[in-house]
């Protein structure tokens, strides 16, 4: 059994705001205050307004033409992101695994992913942003990533899923069909 806790630091609040904006449609600051409260993060309108400026959030036109909040992407591209679905982030992860994953091995609740030199942190960031339920967190070096899984013996199944990602498929999506 795992428990999730978010510290009340400014950095943690900024990360949660980025997550909510990129994972869903946020039309107003009031709506974002409510979503943050549901996640256990209490914030005033004034603080939220300053936070949005600090993280570079902007209001852009969504797919339906309505104004929604978006945040700049991480890395060198910096284009605005909003309302990214789980399918979008998972598709990106599958594509990166196809290009970068060399091997995936497991032991109990740990999975070790190997990449070409210099690619581990990039792939680990994609794993983090994909929001896989089984992954508690990642640690990346130059060419190795360690994933910690939620279940005490769920490492082998997750390693198998990453090997499938490297082949361009998702066994969980295959089983759902």
TrEMBL record:
Q: Which family does the entry's similarity section mention? A: Belongs to the ArgR family.
State the name under which the record lists this protein: Arginine repressor
Localization, per the record, is: Cytoplasm
Q: Which InterPro entries match?
A: Arg_repress, Arg_repress_C, Arg_repress_C_sf, Arg_repress_DNA-bd, WH-like_DNA-bd_sf, WH_DNA-bd_sf
**Annotated source species:** Nesterenkonia aethiopica
Q: What is its main location?
A: cytoplasm
What pathway does this protein act in?
Answer: Amino-acid biosynthesis; L-arginine biosynthesis [regulation]
For the keyword Amino-acid biosynthesis, the answer is yes
């Amino acid at each position: 059994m795992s428990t999730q806790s978010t510290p009340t630091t400014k950095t943690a609040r900024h990360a949660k705001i980025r997550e909510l904006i990129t994972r869903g449609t946020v039309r107003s600051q009031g709506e974002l205050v409510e979503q943050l409260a549901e996640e256990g993060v209490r914030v005033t309108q004034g603080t939220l307004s300053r936070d949005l400026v600090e993280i570079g959030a902007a209001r852009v036109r969504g797919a339906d033409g309505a104004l929604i909040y978006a945040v700049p992407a991480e890395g060198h591209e910096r284009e605005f992101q909003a309302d990214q679905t789980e399918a979008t982030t998972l598709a990106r992860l599958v594509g990166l695994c196809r290009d970068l994953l060399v091997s995936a091995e497991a032991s109990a609740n740990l999975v070790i992913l190997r990449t070409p030199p210099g690619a581990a942190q990039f792939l680990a960031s994609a794993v983090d942003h994909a929001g896989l339920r089984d992954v508690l967190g990642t640690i990346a070096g130059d060419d190795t990533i360690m994933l910690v899984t939620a279940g005490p013996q769920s490492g082998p199944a997750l390693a198998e899923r990453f090997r499938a990602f490297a082949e361009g498929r998702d066994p969980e999506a295959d089983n759902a069909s």
